[in-house]
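Dear U.,

For the methods section draft, I wanted the exact inputs and outputs in one place so we can describe them consistently. I've listed the two proteins in the order they'll appear in the manuscript figures. Please don't edit the token lines directly; just add comments below if something needs changing.

First protein:
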Amino acid sequence: MSSTHAPTATGRREQILKEAARLFAERGFHGVGVDEIGAAVGISGPGLYRHFAGKDAMLAELLVGISERLLEGGRIRAASGGDSPGAVLDALIDGHIDFALDDRPLITVHDRELDRLREADRKRVRRLQREYVELWVQVVREVYPACAEADARASVHAVFGLLNSTPHLSRPGALPGRTEMSQLLHRLARGAFAAVGAGGVADGAAHGAAGGFAGPPAPLDTSGQSD
């Protein structure tokens, strides 16, 4: 007797969203039909409507959902990341690196398709992203007290841009292994933050010497603009 079980409704929705993100990233939102998304998960196109009202609903859930997860994950890490501001910053960086390495299609989809969301969904994404940015800004200023708020915010946007560049880093096989890439990105992020804070270089160097790159999450967006 087979032990294989049919996917739960939640599991099926997650599977559909994962394939939709992949296809939207590869071919663009308008270049993918509902039938193709259905075929990718082994169900008929019309069968998708039992889970989503249509492609617009999938796109909204992808982009709102990842913004919510990044913010919630950031809050959890800020609350339990360690007994020092530096440890909390390291936890935030590691969380975003996991996102940047594991969810590359979502970064591409966000960059290309955010403006296709309904106004209410787009504003929700922007609000969640601003809260995520400000969470980082607070931690950066705790690690580097001499850093002005504007400089801290600029550095957070710059680090998001650096980490969210992973979809553009050549062929996957040409990159270092995942662990090595995670460590490299962490060092680069720490170096960027150290550049804006007096004494930050020593703090970042000490972290590197300790080998604490455990290496989720721009927000996807790094513009910080409001709608």
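Second protein (the one for the lower panel):
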Amino acid sequence: MNTLDSTDPKQFIADFFTSFTDELLRSDDDPALIFDRYHTPDIVQVADGHRMDRDKLIAHTRPVRKNRPTSRIEVHEALADGDGIAARYTLSVQNRKRELAIEVYFFGQFTPEGRMRQAHMLTRAVPADADTDADLAEQTPRLVEEQEPSA
């Protein structure tokens, strides 16, 4: 596992999520053991206002593992300061039923050996075929119009 102080922040966050997901989906090891290799026991993650501790996060891995989706992460920007990292990335996921893309604003704290201690995330769905920032900027007005209630 890479350490935050020895890796470019964009590469660190991409490697962290890619290797965690790959190991979770391609291994028969207990999900809790895999989870603990990447997270501290006192991990707290708040995603869109929903707080999850270690037990809730491990429970969240079980349906992901069962469905075995494919995913790809594109880190658009990332900054590190000490043990903290802020990043904006797009997570593209495809499972048997659908393809989706999620834009993520991530603020996290990591241990010196690269395990996640804390994370705060804001997410929003974006068109699954929007591969670049330019595509997202072009799609945003249409997404807003689709979400606004009609008068």
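Candidate sentences for the figure legend, describing the second protein: The helical segments are 9-26, 31-38, 54-67, 133-147. The first strand starts at residue 39 and ends at 47.

Thanks,
Y.
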